[in-house]
């Protein structure tokens, strides 16, 4: 007992507080920007290949005011977000119910799993030629690519969530006369919700990454397209501005879904 | 109800017999308790009646029909309560009624009745995790009773409760059964509980479970006037109660000693 308590205290003492965490994050960012600035200013690398942070910041401001590659950076970002939203919603709307049903109906599990397990190893980017050929470079192609990235985590987490539901709850529902659909809607979904939301978060991250990959190749607007245009005209600051935009948007999406996950966990956590 | 029931579990390549040739019947509105050493298959018996498990051979019938699956005519009260954590007390109690398609008004009336009967007033909108174990099991019993089932199946319903709560719940269950007599099958490892609650007590042997003996408690209860006593400790003080309890304990102990004998120990291991 004493040993356990001592270890518990040691871990508590070692774990950083919120304030310390914030300080550490700030130090990390500062180090990164400092190094970037230092290398860019030292002249070791030609500024054409590595512009300093100041130049990139200026470029972002300029891109926000003057269209480049057809549109301002906001419009490019919005175009990307629209595609992302469509693909992500589609993936969630298909993946979550299918995963839950596979968790409940054994035959569906046996039917879908072998196919799914082989298809999901095809990287989203590998779908690009096919997607462009079949769905075009407008909205269909990129949507399919995001879908291929975002779909597997939605399905897998819903499936796992459904499989991990306390068996006694399912039996209780059955003995109370609930049918398959009611059990899915009123027992599996709420019980699997924490897992589903965690899956959505992973799925959003993968979807966003896949989208940028898709935009490098297919479309004529969006952050990825902006990047390619910057690259072909050797405008490194523009490429880096687009990278910043990708990072920031991805971060915002993640923070939003993390907040959702926390809310769900908190209201569900007590009983498990 | 149970006719020559055998149940064999498969564990890897091994076949582990859990129940052997168990036959007994529960009469209309009769309360039967099953006691036996842990692992003797008493829960398996109950799950078969519920339609959550099936015999390897033999037959399990309710109302002369072979049990094919779970259904609301046979309500189950689980040891782990099995309440839906995301539903309030009244939603939990009303769940089975909603499955049946009872309209909202009738449902509310039935839920209100069982809330009152189980002393849950004021907690209708609470969530299960906000309640104590005893309260949660009250909700679970109300949820089962609300369906007005023909048969009530209870799997160590008070096993997860502390001793005092347990006594209160046992008394409440006796009261509930007096108001609302049901055909009931009750699993427990507590001999006192079985004798106090049941009309008959089925004593099972160690795995594989067979019927060791079936004791008639109801006739003793009637003869000795247990019903006139309000509290469980008064009943437990009666000579007739002690006598029955001791008999069951002896039956259970015989099996313990059998295990201790080396020859049989080797066989069962």
Helices, strands, pairings?
The complex is a heterodimer of chains A (272) and B (269).
Chain A: H1 2-14, H2 18-42, H3 53-65, H4 73-104, H5 106-119, H6 128-135, H7 140-163, H8 167-175, H9 180-217, H10 223-232, H11 236-269
Helix pairs in contact in A: 3-11, 4-5, 4-7, 4-9, 4-10, 6-7, 7-9, 9-10, 9-11, 10-11
Chain B: E1 2-11, E2 14-24, E3 31-35, H1 42-50, E4 57-62, E5 65-66, E6 74-77, H2 89-100, H3 104-117, H4 133-145, E7 151-155, H5 163-179, E8 183-187, H6 191-197, E9 200-204, E10 211-216, H7 218-224, H8 232-237, H9 239-260, H10 262-268
Helix pairs in contact in B: 2-3, 2-4, 3-4, 6-9
Concise overview:
The complex is a heterodimer of chains A (272) and B (269). Chain A is mostly helical. Chain A is 81% helix and 0% strand.
Any overview of this molecule?
With about 270 residues, chain A is mainly alpha-helical. Chain A has two domains: about 1-40; about 55-270, MetI-like fold. Chain A is about 80% helix and about 0% strand. Chain A is built from eleven helices and no strands. Chain A has helices at about 1-15, 20-40, 55-65, 75-105, 105-120, 130-135, 140-165, 165-175, 180-215, 225-230, 235-270. In chain A, α4 (about 75-105) packs across α10. Chain A is globular, with a radius of gyration of 23 Å. Chain B is an alpha/beta fold. Chain B has two domains: about 1-75 and about 150-270, P-loop containing nucleotide triphosphate hydrolases (Rossmann fold, 3-Layer(aba) Sandwich), CATH 3.40.50; about 85-150, no CATH class. Chain B contains ten helices and ten strands. Chain B has helices spanning about 40-50, 90-100, 105-115, 135-145, 165-180, 190-195, 220-225, 230-235, 240-260, 260-269; strands spanning about 1-10, 15-25, 30-35, 55-60, 65, 75, 150-155, 185, 200-205, 210-215. A six-stranded mixed beta sheet of chain B has the order 6-7-8-3-9-10, sandwiched between helices. A four-stranded antiparallel beta sheet of chain B has the order 2-1-4-5. In chain B, β7, α5 and β8 form a beta-alpha-beta unit. Chain B is globular. The model of chain B is unreliable at about 260-269 (pLDDT under 50). The interface of A and B includes residues 172, 175 and 177 of A.
């Amino acid at each position: 007992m004493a040993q356990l308590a001592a270890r518990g205290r040691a871990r508590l003492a070692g774990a950083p507080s919120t304030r310390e965490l914030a300080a550490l994050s700030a130090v990390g960012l500062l180090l990164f920007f400092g190094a970037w600035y230092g290398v860019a200013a030292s002249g070791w690398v030609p500024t054409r290949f590595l512009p300093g942070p100041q130049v990139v910041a200026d470029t972002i401001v300029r891109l926000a005011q003057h269209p480049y590659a057809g549109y301002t950076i906001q419009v490019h970002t919005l175009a990307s977000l629209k595609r992302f939203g469509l693909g992500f919603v589609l993936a969630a709307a298909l993946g979550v119910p299918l995963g839950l049903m596979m968790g409940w109906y054994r035959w569906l599990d046996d039917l879908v799993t072998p196919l799914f397990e082989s298809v999901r190893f095809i990287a989203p980017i590998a779908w690009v030629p096919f997607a462009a050929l079949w769905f075009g470079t407008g909205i269909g192609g990129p949507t399919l690519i995001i879908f291929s990235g975002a779909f597997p985590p939605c399905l897998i987490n819903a499936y796992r969530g459904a499989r991990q539901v306390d068996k006694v709850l399912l039996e209780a529902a059955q003995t109370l006369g609930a049918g398959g659909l009611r059990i899915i809607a009123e027992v599996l979904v709420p019980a699997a919700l924490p897992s589903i939301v965690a899956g959505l978060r992973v799925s959003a991250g993968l979807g966003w990454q896949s989208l940028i990959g898709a935009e490098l190749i297919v479309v004529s607007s969006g952050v990825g397209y902006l990047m390619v245009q910057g690259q072909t005209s050797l405008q490194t600051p523009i490429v880096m501005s687009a990278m910043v935009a990708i990072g920031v948007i991805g971060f915002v999406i993640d923070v939003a879904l993390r907040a959702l996950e926390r809310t769900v966990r908190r209201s569900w956590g007590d009983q498990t | 109800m149970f006719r020559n029931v055998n149940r064999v579990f498969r564990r890897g390549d091994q076949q582990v017999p859990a129940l052997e040739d168990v036959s007994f019947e529960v009469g209309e509105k009769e309360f039967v308790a099953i006691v036996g050493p842990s692992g003797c298959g008493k829960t398996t018996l109950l799950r078969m009646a519920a339609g959550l498990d099936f015999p390897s051979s033999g037959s399990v019938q309710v109302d002369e029909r072979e049990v094919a699956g779970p259904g609301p005519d046979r309500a189950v009260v689980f040891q782990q309560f099995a309440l839906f954590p995301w539903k309030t007390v009244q939603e939990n109690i009303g769940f089975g009624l909603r499955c049946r398609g009872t309209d909202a008004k009738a449902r509310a009336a039935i839920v209100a009745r069982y809330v009152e009967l189980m002393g849950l007033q004021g907690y209708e909108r609470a969530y299960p995790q906000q309640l104590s174990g005893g309260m949660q099991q009250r909700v679970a019993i109300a949820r089962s009773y609300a369906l007005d089932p023909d048969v009530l199946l209870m799997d160590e319903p008070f096993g997860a409760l502390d001793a005092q709560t347990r006594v209160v719940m046992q008394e409440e269950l006796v009261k509930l059964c007096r108001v609302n007599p049901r055909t009931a099958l009750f699993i427990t490892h507590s001999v006192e509980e079985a004798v106090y609650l049941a009309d008959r007590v089925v004593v099972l042997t160690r795995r594989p479970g067979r019927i060791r003996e079936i004791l008639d408690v109801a006739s003793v209860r009637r003869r000795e006037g247990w019903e006139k006593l309000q509290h469980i400790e008064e009943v437990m003080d009666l000579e007739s109660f002690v006598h029955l309890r001791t008999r069951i304990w002896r039956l259970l102990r015989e099996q313990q000693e059998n295990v201790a004998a080396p020859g049989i120990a080797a066989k069962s291991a």
